[in-house]
Amino acid sequence: MRCLTLFFRAAFALALISSLRLATASADDSLIEVVSPKTLAANSINCQRVALGEPDDYKPCVARLPDGELLLTAFHQEKRDGNKVMEQTLLFRSRDGGQSWSSAEKLPLLGREPYLTILPDGTIFITGHLLAQDTRNEWGYTCGFLHRSTDRGKTWESVRIESEAVKPNASNHSTRNVLRLSDGTLLLGVDYDGGSGPYLIWRSSDNGKTWNKSQQCVPEEFKSQYGFFGGETWLWQARSGKIWALVRVDSNEFPMKNRPIRATNDQADHFILWSSQDNAQTFQRIQDFGDYGEMYMSLLRLRDKRLLLTFTVRDLRPPLGVRALPAVETDDGFRVDFEHDRVMLDTKTGSRYQGGGFGPTVQLDDGTLVTSCSYRGEDGKSHLETIRWQLPAAR
């Protein structure tokens, strides 16, 4: 009798665990359209979509630990009295390549829009910024944070970006990612809103244990009320050593050549490429990149030597959502054709008010790609999803 009791208790526990997992992550198979295929040998791609989290979780970022475990961050905003908010950083884990996800861990970290960088030794970084109206903000202005973990995200240490001794009361931000150079040096871009910088490059030679925060950087032909790094910029190093900055800009301040628009909100922002050949001491403006309303860009080196650009369409060119494009790597940088081979990873937001996107991509050992996104559902809430897919072979 005791054995039967233990058996039923175990069965109940397994059923409860299974139901909790299904409530957190569910999967379905579908097709992804490829618009105007030119180099890709397919018009559509099979994929597996895996839902996770709760309604109004927002802007996920996925990254891969060296042993293959996937981490995914997001955040959830709760309204508070007096026009205040409390924004909770969330962490999900997957040990099966994104086919299923754990329930959310509520991390004791400050900041919104958490963005992951993972080093080859497993050191984890999360960048983000704490809004001035967050109930936990004791400084009175929006400030950036860099969080670091060396034990798979079990414990964290945090560095706050300070304005007090640099530009009092100015909002500050960092680049989305921490860039690891070919020599192992880490770079983080840091700057301040309001125009005139300063624009700083933080450097670390010990995997982020300590940072030299003194180097000023000059972004040429950049003049804005916002920062050059601004909370959106994504850094990448070419094989030659040149450093690229994929920079989000205000479209009224930086209209595209011969294509000015009158943007009424930041959903029509776009990206411009800057590059540096002197180890990030100066950046030169190169060209517009993509179209109005396209942002949250990141590059991934694939196992077949191609690059993959993942980005989000936030306005003007529905359906809104996450896209991917194959790219060609050159010694000094990369080439991308925005008019062909557009992989329509996420289109669920349609023409509704933007749903976040974000959409970085990682690659598994078997070549499978996993992209994260948030979209706006018919219920008006944002929802998290990961997409497992394969980039078609080149023609």
Features of the shown structure:
395 residues, 6-stranded antiparallel sheet, globular, single chain, mainly beta, 28 strands
What this model shows, in words?
This protein is mainly beta and 395 residues long. The chain has a domain at 26-55 and 298-395. It is built from one helix and 28 strands. A hairpin with a 5-residue loop joins strand 17 and strand 18 (243-249). It is globular. It starts with a helix and ends in a 6-residue tail after the last strand.
Counted beta strands: 28
User: Which regions contain 5 or more consecutive residues with pLDDT less than 50?
Assistant: 1-23
Terminal Cα span: 66 Å
If you average the pLDDT, what whole number results?
93
Strand arrangement within the widest β-sheet reads 25-1-2-28-27-26
Strand content: 35-45%
- Report the major sheet: 6 strands, antiparallel
Total helical segments? 1
Radius of gyration: 21 Å
By oligomeric state, this entry counts as single chain
Structural class: mainly beta
Shape verdict: globular
What order do the helices and strands follow?
HEEEEEEEEEEEEEEEEEEEEEEEEEEEE
Portion in helices: under 10%
